[in-house]
Amino acid sequence: MLNLIQNEHMKWFMKKSTKVVFLAIAVLTLGMALIMRAITTNAGITETLPGFVAFTSNFLIIVQFFAVAAAGSIVASEFEKGTIKLLLIRPKSRSTILLSKYLTSIFISLYYLAAFFLFSIIWGIIFFSGGAFNGQEGQGIWIAYGVSYLETFMMVAFAFMLSSVFRNSALAVGLGIVVGVGAKMLAGILSEFQVQWGIILLFANTNLSQYMDGNQTYFPGMTLPFSLLIIIAHLLFFVGTAWLFFLKRDVAN
């Protein structure tokens, strides 16, 4: 298993698109720093490092898009290139091969999240004054990253399922992004108008910060155990469907 994961990492790292993603994260966060610097300078405001990192956390959806792109192509690209046959002749089960790809997808999403955070820190140190990641602002940063990564984790599972089912990278990535964004918008709209059946939607339940003291839940009657159940049910469906299609199809053809 470890060898398979290492191999997947090597294939991912050797792609030009991987380097482009990290460069894009660096440039985008730099752009945010320059914009924030210009705004605060003109307004005569002194921004801090934690304040800038808190600002950039509002744009973590960028990480979600990149993670979905990686997960949506990690299986499908093997079929498109015909390299799936080379994988299947190895003395490893299909389940093991698919698991290595799924775990690699999760690792990649974590690498992108870490890169976004680190570049935010780097540009924050260069352009803004110091400050400590404690108190309400620091807590808000960790909550924002935690909530965003839970959403990313589920979107990765969804895109991975699409990659296994359709075996087409463009379709898997496109659907993964469109459905993911659309589902979050739908959850927000149904919550605004209190349409109760929206309680079962995945993205009405991924923001676990709604259960913190003083926060209001998306829908009346929601509880933390209920949200965890909804999240687990969706995860099992996404991963289970991916496994079913990968194992049952004649993938060698």
UniProtKB/TrEMBL annotation:
Keyword Phosphoprotein included in the entry's annotation: no
Keywords: Membrane, Transmembrane, Transmembrane helix
PANTHER family: INTEGRAL MEMBRANE PROTEIN-RELATED, MEMBRANE PROTEIN
Pfam (any one): ABC2_membrane_4
The name this protein goes by in its record: ABC transporter permease
Transmembrane segments: 20-39, 59-79, 99-128, 140-162, 174-204, 224-247
